[in-house]
Amino acid sequence: MKRIHLISGPRNISTAMMYAFAQRQSCTVVDEPFYAHYLKRTGVDHPGREKTIASMSTDPNLVIKNVILGDYLTEEVYIKNMGHHLLDVDFDFLSGLTNMFLVRDPKRIIASFTKVIPDITIMDIGLKHQFEVWKYLVEELGQNPVVVDTGNVLKNPQSMIQKLCIALTIPFEQSMLTWEPGPRNEDGVWAEYWYGSLHESDGLKQKTEEEVELDSRYDGLLEEAQYYYDHLKKFEII
């Protein structure tokens, strides 16, 4: 079985990518299995916090054993995770996975995130944690993980998904580009708070992103996040 492990940040197209992989002929998708652990460990007050904690295990070791390394009936399993959810988690389990990173211009992440939660830190937007996981994979495990930039996917979805499939050594399937609008059974219980616009979509479509402006109070956060983004972007597939 091929276990594809997405390490993303929030306010990205990570759920759209999960929907894309859900269209494959023999692929199970899993939505953020460490989210409840993260919420309980940090105490952060996200929308749907208690519902999320009640919906899944908060023990990261059980998540690894039963979900990430669990048994599935399909040839592939695609696990969507947020980098910052892997808090106090032993990264050894990553050695058995095909790891990939989805990064996005931090200015856009911050602009999108603050529409829901205005008071955010570097922990919330995930880039620092993505960098830390990437560094572990490269330096400790000798891996060369795939890095994809959201901006490139939006500019040319089919081309980038084809390139991604090549990098993951799986066949490209045209079905990955479209889906039926609405929620999926695999959605986490937090979908009602975060996935509204995605549920109105019917696939990965070419999109020109508009310029965004940030309040000056986020200047320090943007500068720190930009450092991690720029480093990861050096290794993206284009």
Description:
The protein has 238 residues and is an alpha/beta fold. The chain has one domain: P-loop containing nucleotide triphosphate hydrolases (Rossmann fold), CATH 3.40.50.300. It has helices at 14-22, 35-42, 49-55, 60-68, 106-113, 122-125, 127-139, 150-155, 157-168, 191-194, 196-199, 219-233; strands at residues 2-8, 27-31, 76-82, 98-103, 146-149. A five-stranded parallel β-sheet has the order 2-3-1-4-5. Helix 2 (35-42) crosses helix 3 (49-55). The radius of gyration is 17 Å and the shape is globular. The mean pLDDT is 95.
CATH superfamily: P-loop containing nucleotide triphosphate hydrolases
Low-confidence stretches: none
Q: What would the average pLDDT be, to the nearest integer?
A: 95
State the end-to-end CA separation.
27 Å
How many individual domains? 1
Radius of gyration: 17 Å
In the CATH scheme, the class would be Alpha Beta
Molecular shape: globular
Work out the helicity level.
40-55%
Largest sheet: 5 strands, parallel
**Share of residues in strands:** 5-15%
What's the layout of helices and strands?
Layout: E1 2-8, H1 14-22, E2 27-31, H2 35-42, H3 49-55, H4 60-68, E3 76-82, E4 98-103, H5 106-113, H6 122-125, H7 127-139, E5 146-149, H8 150-155, H9 157-168, H10 191-194, H11 196-199, H12 219-233
Helix pairs in contact: 2-3, 7-12
